[in-house]
Each structure stands twice: as structure tokens, then as C-alpha cells.
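Repro:
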Amino acid sequence: IEKSKEKSKNDPKKEEQNNVKKIVLDSNNLKWDESAKKIKKEDRGILYHLADITEGKFNGGTLNQFKDVTIENNNFYYIELNNSVFVVSFKDGGDVDYYKQIFGDNKDIKIIHNIEIPQLNFENELSFKYKGREVYALEYGFFYIDELPLFEKYKKYLKKLDYIDPLYGQAWTTDYSKKMNEVNIASMGGVYFVDSAGVLRVYRLVPSIVAHKPKLEDANIEDALDIIWNDTGKKNKIRYGYSPQGCGMSSFVVGSNLPGYDDIKEDDLKEIGKTSEGISVYGFKSMNNKIIKDTYDLYQTLKETSWIEESAQEQFGKKSVNSLEEFYKLNPVIVFKDALNRYQVMTASVFREPVECGKPVIYLYPQKEMNVSVKVLPTGGFTKVEPDYPKSGWFVSAKPNGQLYNFFDGKTYPYLFWEGKSDVLYNQPQKGFVVKRNELGELFDKTLSAQNLNKQEIDDFKEFWIPKMLKSDKPYFFVTYTSRKFIDRAAPLVINPKPDTLIRVMMDYEPLESYKEVEKMTFNPVERKGFTVVEWGGMLGE
């Protein structure tokens, strides 16, 4: 390994790339187009004119942006000068063949790494002072919907912060005085900017009570909370997080504007600890508070699972908590004021259900071989993908038999695979099926074929899900399927060219100690015709 490093260090090509002088495009040499005029619409997306370049190496050229029709953060910037296209690469460059699919073979396409566009290249971490407190946030992503930016769509839920970034401009955040009936990008309580291309940039606010400032790549930023408890004088050892997290959320208590929870009132709180910097941490005065009782009720449905028992033993010295009073004394829910002076709620991780979207698999069946762009956006981000998911989304050549050639790695795949999380509100359907352990295969044959999946797709589904479900030793299972509306909101899927038929199936299940009667679920199958796309997945509880 050391020899490899040394060789790379002395690689003349690497040294040449590192020594290339940076070219900065900013207000000194760019004339921004405030309306971001559409140049033309291609099959794969839309080309926009952002600015004219008035000085330097690219004088006389134009700075443009390519946008896929998606809400995913899939776009790239390029400079067009004469017959040349210079793709601006801030981090990774992609494949020239990919860009030829957009611009054609008659263009001289180059990927350049030495361009800086400060107004477009947002930092991963953001820090600024707001009314005497430090705001620290991590980039969540950037979003747009074709010609209708999300900023305009959700602006009614946002308000201006008393902060204007010298580079990025006006900062916005969630207006918690506005009542919302759904979780959306504007309800997250983050910090928002609109870049010079009219794209909404989102930063996730880091809780002000964390023990250290995490970086973007850190997985669990809420684990280590800087709390010293008032009653014991000891440092906190309990892991907390925003509650709950998963593929779909049955409740969401960050902020107080969402269904099911009244506004948090100061009179309902009592101080139970402080951070090393003197920030107060609160609990609820009454164990009969709705948030406490709802969290306790959720825990009662989960407490016998091995994951919950092991976590409780590790953190509290006991496998289970058997009364609301005992539960309340463990500080299961804490409240604090964030850097923007808003109440936020966190729940002990042991009392939260860890659920995520399990192995959604996407099959593509065009009528003839063609190139296809696939973008999926689980609103809580990915936890696993195959093949790798570049910023521009998957771009593959699909054959009628379902075989996929991935342009980015040059490999062939039978389907596209992802796992991820979502913060869309979710309630498990009441209709479904209750079957014995040995009846799962037969049930999936019937219910999946009723939703028009073919034999190969059903076999793939059973191969993944049945062994995972049978890890539970319960004799029965309640099996149900989420609505298409929920799937589309939890993980928007945009495919170009647009398929003639799109089938999306998401299964949920619950192991049962005994049989129970439930109303049977019925299906309205979608006819498979033309270019067909099929996706199956489920709720993955670990």
C-alpha cells in the first residue's frame, strides 16, 4: 500500500493536474441571466443559459446548465464556446460517453477540473452566527422540478432569516407558524438558499446539543449528545435521534407543526440537564404528555424484539421497561432550543423503530434497445445502491429482455437496486392478509401476480423477502401493501424516456403470535404495455 501511495504521489499526470491554475468564474467575468432562459429541450432533459462569459480564457462563451426532469440533485454545468463543450466538474467527472448522449458526437467534449464557480459550488458544511448563537448545518442536497423550482412551490412554508450570506445570498428556514398536512422539503426546519441558477439548496441543521461538529460523511450525527443531567451530575450516555426514522414515518416530532402534536409550550417543560456550553435541555413535566405517551405506546409494540432488548440492556441495564412511570424516569424524550431558537424534540434511539425501504429493485423493459435515465429520490437518502448512483442518476442501455448496460462502470446488470429512508408520514394499511410461516410463498405468488409482476420478478422478491421474514420465530404474519401514492411521495422515481407502464409495489409486514381476522386487500392491476418499468420493495425492519 505504501509503495502504491508513493507511486501515485510521483505520478507526473497527477502533479500536472494539481499544478493547473484555477479559473474562477464569478461576478467579475460573468453576466448572469436572471431568468435562466431555456436553450432547448432534449429527450434527456433541458438545457438552460445561465450567464455570458465576458473575460478570460472562455471569453465569448456561455455558462449553461443541464437539468433532467426530476427533483433529484441531478444537473451539471458546462461552458459552450464555438464547437466545444467544457463540462465543469467540481468533484467527480463522469464519462465523456455519457455527455455525448446529450450533446452528440459532433461536439468536442472535455471535462475540466480547474474551474471554480463560487456562487454555484456550495460548501458541504455551513456555519454562521445568528442572534448570538452559532448555526452549523450540513448540505442535504439541491432540488428543482423542471421549470418550477421547489423554492417557489414551498415558499409559502418558508420565512426569511435575519442573515444574508455574502456569497449565497438570503437565508430562509421553515415557518413553523404555518400548519402543514405533510412532511416535505420545506418542513424539515433546515436552512435554505436559492443559487444563481434558481435551484433550491438545502442544509440540514445540526442539533445544537451534539458533543462534536460532525462532517457530512458522518452517519449518526445525533448519537453523541453533550448533556450533563441535573439529577445525577453525570454525562449523558443515552443515544438520541429525531424520532422515528425509516422508509415511512408514523410520527414526526421535529418541530411542532405536523399532524398529531400540539405546539410545545414552555409551561409544559422542566429543565433536566445542560450542555457544557450552558444550553438547557428539557423534559416534559408530566408523564401523561401526548408525546411521552405516544412514544411509550410505540415502544410497547417493539420491546420484545431482539434489537430493542439488546439496546435497552446496553443503555439502561435491563431488557425491558414495564410501566409508563418507569419509562418516564429514563428521559425517553428530550426537548431543546436549536440555534434558530425553535423547540426541537429527540427520542432515545432504543425507543424508536429502525425501519427502511428494503431492496427496491427496478426492472426496465423497453420495446427495443434504448438508452434510459433513471433517478430515484428517497426523501431520507440512500443507504445502499447497486450499481453506484452518480449525481446525474443511473444512465443505462436497456434491452427488451431486461438486461441493462451501465454506462458509468461498463458492467451489465439484471436490474437497478437501492435501499434508503424516507421522512414521509406513514400509517400501515389495515387491510391485508394473515398467513402461516409456510404459506408466505403461496401468498406472494397470488398477491404479486395480482399486481401484474411476472414470474422472474416474483421469484426475485421471494428469494429476498421470505428468508428475511422467517428470521422471526412468530407463527403468523400480517402482510400488506402500501398505496402507490405513498411510494411516489416517499421515493419519487423519474425515468426518461417516460415509460408507458409503471408498476411500483411496496410490501409491509408484521410477525404475529396468533392468527387474527383482517379485511382482505384487493388490487387494481396495471396492464403491461409498451415500455414497462417494474419496481418492488418493502419495509425493512432490522
